[in-house]
Amino acid sequence: MRIGIDARMFGPGYGLGRYVEQLIKHLEKNDRENEYVVFMKNDTWDLWKPKYDNFKKVKANIHWYTFAEQLKLKSIIKKEQIDLMHFPHWNIPIFFNDPFVVTIHDLTMFHFARPEASTRSRLIFWLKDKVHRWVVGRVVKKALHIITTSDFTKQDVHRTLSVSLDRMTTVYQSPFQEDGWKKTDREIVKKHGITKDYIMYVGAAYPHKNLETLLKAWQIFEEKYGDNYELVLAGKKNYFYEHLLKSDDFQKCNNITYIDFPNDEDLASLYSWASLYVFPSLYEGYGLPPLEAISYDIPVVSSNESCLPEVLGDAALYFDPRNPEHMCNVMHSALINKDIQMSLTQNGRDRIKQLSSKKFALETLELYKKYSK
Q1: How many whole angstroms separate alpha carbon 217 and alpha carbon 211?
Q2: Distance between CA atoms of residues 170 and 315, nearest Å
Q3: Which sign, positive or negative, has the C-alpha torsion 291, 296, 298, 299?
Q4: Cβ distance 186 to 297 under 8 Å?
Q5: What ranges in the chain are assigned the alpha helix state H?
Q6: Helix/strand/coil percent split, the chain, to 5
Q7: H or E segment at 46?
């Protein structure tokens, strides 16, 4: 079978980039029978080099969500005579009619499509929202099968888009490089201006990520427990982070550091030396960053919303993400209670073993085989 993978979102980065990168690298380790054609953009072309003859790269230097994606991507794929195409996101050319499977990571924009969360005018936002809903609805109807990253998302797609549950399969992604994390030089942490023990958040600042409530919780933390700890936010700067950094809540925090899009080496150091990881999100389809923190033996405190209890299990301590006082108290408990820390660490190691990269790749491969010609 000749399988195509749309890898234009190949890492570095978070979320989709990690998913695509991990999928390809571990399929390559575990499948010598099928042929793979991996479609990549120029800016990430050199990040992966095929090791075996059954894998090849093809340039598809087309950015996502563009007219070029609609007009050119289909013909590039067609030339490669693909038997089955895997799109790891819903941005599939409207007129693509060949066999494909698609990964739906979440339906965030169906539930948090708020105009104030957009940098565009309300009219443009409204039009984009309508197009997005139409495209996703069309994609899930045309796909041979749908991969979801959690049972929560599977049920969400079922309820929101009326997709039959038997057309979907949950395949859990494993933490990025869970086999090879190593404690790194603390000098990398110091170069970012971090001088105290710290609580860390990694990810975007979109409204559903709920960082405004985290800042309120951090203000309470500083008032109740002093300034022995620092809060570190790490993520790619965009409109939402810029808005957050200018907010009154951010300005009221004393011990807080923002790091713009750390590279993998810096991110490894930041995870490695953190005292605690906090994840306040209101909605996730999977929640990879807290799993990455867990893979470093870092205690994790998390929102109890959406898929997070399912994915993190007993490897996290949970709080009400809408209650900053509760968030603050749970963070403090995890920082001072050694029994909680030991329990979270051991449970985390067990959870990581259950989410191996090999399992992720092989379960995806089984779906490919099911829909081969």
Answers
A1: 10
A2: 20
A3: positive
A4: no
A5: 16-30, 67-78, 108-111, 122-142, 151-161, 186-190, 211-225, 239-245, 248-252, 264-273, 288-294, 308-312, 324-336, 338-354, 357-370
A6: 50, 15, 35
A7: none
Give the pairing of strands 168-170 and 317-319.
unpaired
In tens, the pLDDT along 1-34 reads 999 999 999 987 667 898 999 999 999 999 999 9
Q: Rounded to whole angstroms, how far apart are CA atoms 143 and 162?
A: 14
* Residues comprising the chain, all counted: 373
CB proximity list for 125: less than 8 A, separation 6 or greater: 115, 118
Q: Give the Cα separation of 239 and 116 in Å (integer).
A: 11
What is the domain partition of the chain in residue ranges?
2-174+356-370, 186-354
- The helix/strand/coil state of 74 is helix
CATH of 2-174+356-370, one of 3.40.50.1000, 3.40.50.720, 1.10.10.60, 3.40.50.2000: 3.40.50.2000
For 171-228, the pLDDT digits (tens) are: 999 885 544 445 677 899 999 999 999 999 999 999 999 999 999 999 999 999 999 9
Q: What is the pLDDT of residues 67-99, one digit of tens each?
A: 999 999 999 999 999 999 999 999 999 999 999
